[in-house]
């Protein structure tokens, strides 16, 4: 695999600055500032990484939401689904969480790379990177998370049932789920949030970026214990 580090660095500018390249894959970096932390995120642009090779606006929106609301993950058990570059989980670890960052197996090398760049050695023990393909591996993971995070993971009709199955398995009554989604025509993300998820979760819109059609949802699991209704 041929890789090329691009320069200059650009802050949150997701358009790769590249000319006259014809490699099958190359690495580019972007810089971000959240909650007083500077993050340097590397992305491997290649056919095999696909949509995972971008820091999506919904991911940036979720990080900004944590910043705006001063969300603390200190001492909390956190899992991120479909992490891509790792940016959201890395921020959650910097904000004190014991974080498991997950994605499909082929994406993990990119995430591990970004973890080693952005997480100081003293905090590394609080962050794990693990394979989790929804609907396949979720039962390998515990069910006692305090927070479940996901940004731009609701974009394919095909994966919706396995994503719901995974969220239902990982969550408990005390878990807070933050999902940030961009509504694109025909990707089914609006009915997923507004119709399907409310069958299992209490869903609340906590932030909305109107110009970009991005919504941040806060969710908790609906109790199935009849005693809770008394
Ligand atoms: C659009 S990207 C979003 C990446 C990142 N969360 C962000 O906001 O920048 C969607 C991510 O979900 C992951 N993904 C898609 N389907 C998945 C599945 N069935 N199981 C696990 N991860 C999946 C992809 O590998 C990809 O990294």
Descriptive overview:
The strands form 2 sheets. The chain has a 7-stranded mixed beta sheet, sandwiched between helices. The protein has a 3-stranded mixed beta sheet with strand order 1-2-3. The longest helix is centred in the first third of the chain and has 12 residues. A hairpin with a 4-residue loop joins strand 9 and strand 10. It is of the alpha/beta class. It is built from 5 helices and 10 strands. The N terminus is likely disordered. The protein has a single domain, classed as Rossmann fold (3-Layer(aba) Sandwich). S-adenosylmethionine (SAM) binds next to helix 1. S-adenosylmethionine binds next to helix 1.
Give a quick rundown of the structure.
The chain has 230 residues and is of the alpha/beta class. 22% of the residues lie in helices and 29% in strands.
Overall CATH architecture: 3-Layer(aba) Sandwich
**Largest sheet features:** 7 strands, mixed
Shape: globular
Give me the number of helical elements.
Answer: 5
- The largest sheet has its strands arranged as 6-5-4-7-8-10-9
Helix and strand run = EEEHEHEHEEHEHEE
Termini separation: 61 Å
Radius of gyration based on Cα positions: 17 Å
Q: What are the segments in which pLDDT stays under 50 over at least 5 consecutive residues?
A: 1-22
Descriptive terms for the model:
230 residues; 7-stranded mixed sheet; alpha/beta; globular; binds S-adenosylmethionine; Rossmann fold
